[in-house]
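> call design_seq(struct)
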């Protein structure tokens, strides 16, 4: 959102709906602190939620937002501080206790049960009973229908299995569950991450309904357009501390960003002079029996080619076919003038095409393996001799690329599953199948590396270098280690904060400056317009148009993606 539009939003923004601004808060947290071994997650933070209002909790990954939510829902216990509900001091020793106080959370991925019906999910744990103590199924179904009708979600069948519903309707069921217990405090943690634009609009209507019912809503999101659209108040966390709060209409986006990251992020998209060369990747008539048809485009050396489209347009499916993950039914792929026919991901990697997936936690890393093995996994030929892996080579390869990305971890032998959005100082993990003498030498080596890394980490924090999400860094390091010619980034900034986005964008600019070619799949219009040299728009499995990014505007892209005539 540019400055002009920002001021316009502020000028047009109404006063918070619901009770008057001087209403007492429904929930207060004061002086909350929480530490884990080697990590101070929260330090004397405060938060207030008001009935009939939405408070946005804003902060970079690793700022302490998730820890605070777990304290509010009884999963974690604070080391110090006080919790108050309606002015009365209270404790939340368990999730059940928080539930009993009317606190419920709706997460990015709904915590419901696919094999149960909608009604069973809504009343799970507090189902109506007959006089014999058994579940009153008829009353439960009728009550579920009544709750859904009240929410204007009567189109959802109370008897339907949850697995048969879409993501948006699952969110509605989660909210219906909150309404069924008369929840007074509703926490929404990145609720729009997996929703289409239409579903997001429906969710916003639902939030307005919750406000009208006097619920106190905590809304966590990295998307400023959503925050300014739906929230009344804001609270900003940085490095586990509360650094600002107030009415959102009194704060500009730049002011909030400055509070988030401790510095200005005026140039989220780096200024660069593209040096675009000859075609590097040529795709002609690529087709799949069900996902896409007749896909043709060119990617040139040193170019960032953006792919935009609405949910279901087939963008990720095309990229997975180019990366050899899925088979095609027709078409050709040429890389650097040579035709290739990848039958597996290994074929594409060998040719020089790598794919960084959207679901990095599920598809990008191997949970349970240490960082260095995740990085070296696609490059085993370089780190082995006569079929025997060389540990020193694996560490050397991993260290060279993770240092380049400023990975923040206690050691390269740390389980990649323990990495977070900027966390550090986790307990080192040593491979258990090493002989004792090797283990001792490795510990000494890792301790030296930890000391060097910790000093470098403190220096980076002092300078205010933006943070990429650590698992994302491992995925990118893994594929850069294969020395690719083309790198495909599928939703590279999904679910990360504005400071981390700036780091990702700066890194992409470095890649193309070094002669790599980048395909960027993104659903975020500012990112597409800010980073792409050209933009391919897909609609219903086909390419609808290709634009040079000179004077291109968001309206043109949305109209093309939706098939709306100008």
């Amino acid at each position: 959102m540019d400055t002009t539009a920002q001021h316009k939003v502020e000028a047009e923004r109404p006063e918070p709906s619901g009770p008057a601004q001087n209403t007492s808060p429904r929930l207060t947290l004061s002086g909350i602190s929480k530490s884990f071994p080697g990590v101070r997650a929260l330090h004397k933070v405060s938060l207030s939620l008001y009935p009939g209002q939405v408070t946005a909790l804003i902060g970079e990954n690793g700022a302490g937002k998730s820890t605070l939510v777990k304290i509010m829902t009884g999963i974690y216990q604070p080391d110090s501080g006080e919790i108050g509900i309606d002015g009365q001091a209270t404790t939340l020793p368990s999730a059940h206790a928080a539930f009993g106080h009317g606190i419920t959370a709706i997460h990015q991925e709904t915590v419901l049960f696919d094999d149960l019906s909608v009604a069973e999910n809504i009343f799970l744990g507090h189902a109506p009973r007959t006089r014999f103590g058994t579940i009153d199924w008829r009353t439960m179904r009728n009550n579920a229908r009544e709750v859904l009708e009240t929410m204007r979600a009567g189109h959802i069948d109370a008897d339907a299995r949850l697995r048969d519903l879409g993501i948006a309707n699952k969110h509605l069921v989660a909210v219906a569950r909150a309404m069924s217990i008369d929840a007074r405090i509703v926490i929404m943690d990145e609720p729009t991450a997996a929703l289409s634009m239409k579903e997001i609009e429906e969710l916003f209507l639902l939030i307005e309904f919750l406000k009208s019912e006097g619920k106190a809503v905590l809304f966590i999101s990295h998307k400023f357009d959503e925050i300014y659209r739906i929230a009344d108040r804001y609270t900003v966390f940085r490095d586990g501390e509360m650094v600002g709060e107030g009415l959102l209409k009194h704060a500009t986006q730049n002011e909030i960003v400055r509070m988030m990251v401790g510095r200005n992020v005026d140039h989220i998209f780096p200024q660069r002079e593209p040096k675009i060369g000859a075609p590097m990747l040529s795709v002609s008539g690529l087709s799949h029996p069900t996902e896409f048809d007749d896909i043709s485009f060119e990617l040139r050396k040193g170019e960032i080619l953006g792919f935009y489209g609405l949910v279901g347009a087939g963008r990720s499916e095309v990229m997975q076919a180019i990366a050899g993950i899925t088979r095609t039914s027709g078409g050709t792929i040429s890389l650097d003038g040579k035709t290739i026919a990848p039958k597996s991901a290994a074929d594409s990697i060998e040719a020089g095409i790598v794919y960084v997936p959207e679901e990095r936690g599920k598809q990008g890393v191997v949970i349970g393996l240490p960082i260095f093995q995740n990085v070296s996994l696609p490059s085993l030929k370089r780190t082995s001799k006569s079929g025997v892996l060389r540990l020193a080579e694996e560490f050397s390869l991993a260290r060279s690329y993770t240092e380049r990305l400023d990975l923040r971890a206690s050691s390269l032998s740390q389980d990649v599953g323990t990495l977070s959005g900027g966390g550090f100082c986790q307990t080192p993990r040593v491979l258990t199948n090493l002989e004792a003498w090797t283990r001792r030498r490795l510990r000494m080596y890792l301790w030296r590396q930890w000391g060097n890394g910790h000093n470098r980490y403190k220096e980076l924090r002092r300078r205010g270098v933006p943070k990429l999400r650590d698992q994302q860094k491992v995925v990118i390091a893994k594929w850069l280690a294969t020395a690719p010619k083309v790198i495909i980034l599928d939703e590279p900034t999904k679910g990360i904060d504005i400071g981390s986005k700036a780091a990702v964008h700066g890194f992409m600019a470095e890649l193309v400056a070094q002669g790599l070619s980048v395909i960027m799949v993104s659903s975020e219009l500012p990112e597409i317009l800010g980073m792409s040299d050209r933009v391919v728009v897909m609609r219903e499995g086909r390419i609808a148009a290709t634009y040079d990014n000179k004077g291109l505007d968001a309206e043109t892209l949305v109209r093309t993606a939706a098939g709306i005539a100008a």
